[in-house]
Amino acid sequence: MFYEQNICKICKSNKNETIYKLPFKDDKLKTFFKKFYGEKNLDEIYSLTKNHDFEILNCTKCQFKWQKFIPEKLILNKLYNDWISFDDSLKKKNNLNEEYFFTSLLNLLDTNSVNTLDYGAGVGSFCNFAKKKGFNSYAFEFSSKKVKFLESKKIKIINDSEIKDTKIKFDLIYINQVLEHLEKFDEFFENLNMLSKKFTVIYISVPNTKKLKDPVKKGPYQPLEHLNSFNNSNLKELFSMNNFQTISIYRIFKTVLKKKNFPSFLIKRIFNQIYTTSILFEKN
């Protein structure tokens, strides 16, 4: 049901330390699972996880943190297709601040740039917005249930099996709250390199690693779901290793002047690029 990950996924160091450990059968985790996945799923979750621990490792070299015991596909399929409430996902609607951000993000593109991809689209907040603004908008999604929902909204889907054969190269790829869920990074970056071209804008946002107080809650260390936890430095290192560099402040500033982008976007973006795990990259 689980396999062990003992090597850092970023710097490949085997020098790590356990910073938190609790058996999955502990009442604290049972309470968490009941609250977020529902009482109806509790017995199944318990039967699949009871013989393992929720254990967080910290790489002493690059400070990347991850769950030592990684769920195998049986658990992951149930987690993302059955246990996580689809109805709750639908209740999340775009707010005004999010729409301002989406507009500012799309303004980074040249006028002849039309292809956008929402990678790990969920219920499609970004791809729906880009479609309404006239962009050639696509979605890539892992959950079969959410793929059906996106198709019902007439969103164009790129399936995993189609990536190697697709001729489309995207001008912007939006990846929000995805990377922390992935078992392995190799396939992700293989996909990203095939779907992008030189100067493709990559927006990546993941939970920011904070001081470890209580990881048994929604946040950077969320049990079962958030397998990886990053800081600004190791996230940049990971992308740099895979042919992507951070977008220069000059490019962002030029866009603000040229397209009358929201000034707050420039201020927040400079801060985020330097200090947070919400970062703009571009293909080398």
Strand content: 15-25%
For the record, what is the CATH homologous superfamily label of the largest domain?
Answer: Vaccinia Virus protein VP39
Order of helices and strands: EEHHEEEHHHEHEHEEHEEHEHHE
Radius of gyration, in angstroms, nearest whole number: 19 Å
How many strand units? 13
CATH class of the largest domain: Alpha Beta
Tell me the major beta sheet: 7 strands, mixed
Percent helix, as a range, is 25-40%
- Secondary-structure arrangement, i.e. CATH architecture of the largest domain: 3-Layer(aba) Sandwich
Structural class: alpha/beta
Total count of domains? 2
Oligomer: single chain
Give unreliable regions as ranges. none
The order of strands across the largest sheet is: 8-7-6-9-10-13-12
Dominant shape:
globular
